[in-house]
Amino acid sequence: QLPVEAISTLSELHPKPSHIRYQYGTAGFRTLGSVLDSVLFRVGIIAGLRSKKLDGKTIGVMVTASHNPEPDNGVKLVDPRGEMLEAAWEAHATNLANAATTEDFINALDTLVRVAKIDLSKPSRVVYARDTRPSGPSLVAAFEDGLKAIGAEGRNAGVTTTPILHYLVRAINTKGKKDEYGVDSEEGYFTKLSGAFQKLVAGKTALPPLIIDCANGVGAEAVQKMSGYLGDSIKLIPYNASTTTPGALNNACGADFVKTTQKLPPSLAGDIKPGQRACSLDGDADRLMYYYLDDQNQFHMLDGDKISSLVAGFIVDLVKIAGLDRTIRVGVVQTAYANGSSTKYLAERLPVRCVPTGVKHLHHAAEHFEVGVYFEANGHGTVLFSPETLQTLATHEPSTPAQSTALNHLRNLTLLINQTVGDAISDLLLVETVLAHKSYSGAEWDSLYVDLPNRLVKVVVADRHVFHTEDAERRLVSPKGLQAKIDALVKRYDGGRSFVRPSGTEDVVRVYAEAMIKSQADELAFRVAGLVY
Ligand code: 16G
Ligand code: ZN
After folding, report:
1. Does ligand 1 have an atom closer than 6 angstroms to the CB of 259?
2. For the segment 234-246, what is each residue's pLDDT rounded down to a tens digit?
3. Which of 143, 203, 336, 380 has the most CB atoms in a 10 Å sphere around its CB?
4. Same structural domain, 380 and 319
């Protein structure tokens, strides 16, 4: 039986604004922090029910709006292995968030319990965290009311990064089991990653200090803590670490700023020297962008595709040296936004798959390889090792010293990499590992392939829902006839490629184009946008 009394008393304290329609999208619920109170309360109850449904396994809840402006906030649920919430429950969440009154809400809960066959007598456990946004504390309080209403046991992980919350969920649910992921605390996370990193770079080319633009977000605190665990293996220098300055979060800094403007954050200018590399995190530290200045002080960006190419190449080599290339197939997953040059570079070396935008699509596709490397061009990504591969790595008997060394490196990589979700801090240690092994500078890494000039534009349209895509968002099926016009246009550009897709996070349609020369990429993007408008 649902605790109707407790739910309705507390629900009255968190009424739904009548004019808003919420949607659990690719990034969970996300909008202005000031209109999310009722959503957070209800998510508390939904998380409790999800845990009961999964026999009391711990569910994660992260309160963040990532790279979005400071007044925004959001919330998303994390399933027991640290992965994104199952799709069917995204729809349940949307439905419950939009119930107009307390009575409607309770009725909808009743239906869900019946339809999803939830045994209410099961225990429910939820671990939750938030980023540094000013709206965070009151939203967490509303969420805690939801936990109280459904009688769920909550564990507050405080202010931390999205990937650390995902790590905690997996660590809690695997505690004491054969596949134990790590100690279920922040300290457990820092110890696990830093230990693996120190082993991986021991005896390699010394790494120069690394400037990290923390987007004035929660990553700043995590980078500072991680520094304390790294010994003298690498010095991390946090920039944009003002987590309490109003308006500073993601403002003219951070991974999304760098990717969209293709510029150095102004706050780093002057402090990064020619030849030096640096990187930017986003507001919840799950995206990473690298860059460097060349000898002429020119800015060069090393995005998710460059990270993917660097990392996949390194792992393929290690697997080969370890003598495991017949058992372990390394593959890469990208989206349509991947630069055409990266796809070409990778496809010459290993299997590459293209999937629709959004972490869950990449993650699931990557699970089909023994080792699946996935990155979005925007810098979100990680590497997944299948359970069989972990087993192989643990038990394989090397027959030469070279095989033994490579095998040990692979084992340490499985510990260094946060396999639950993209993790900027884990990823940057991974990048630094590869650079140390290869003795690469930023410029040498950059020269793996030359990016095709590209342009992304957004178009405001009357109704973005009339745009439907196929072939991993690379082609439009509707509006009718539009794709043929795009094809005809693209054909006129040397190295031209363009696609149109409705955004999953904003009320716009996005147009991407690339071509051999920058002016042509720009022109193609604007002409395609003209067709869409
Ligand atoms: C969300 C996605 C991100 C994707 C972006 C695209 C997750 C956790 N995040 O932020 O992967 O790149 O949406 O946004 O899935 P768009 O649909 O507005 O282009
Ligand atoms: Zn993020």
Report:
1. no
2. 999 999 999 999 9
3. 143
4. yes
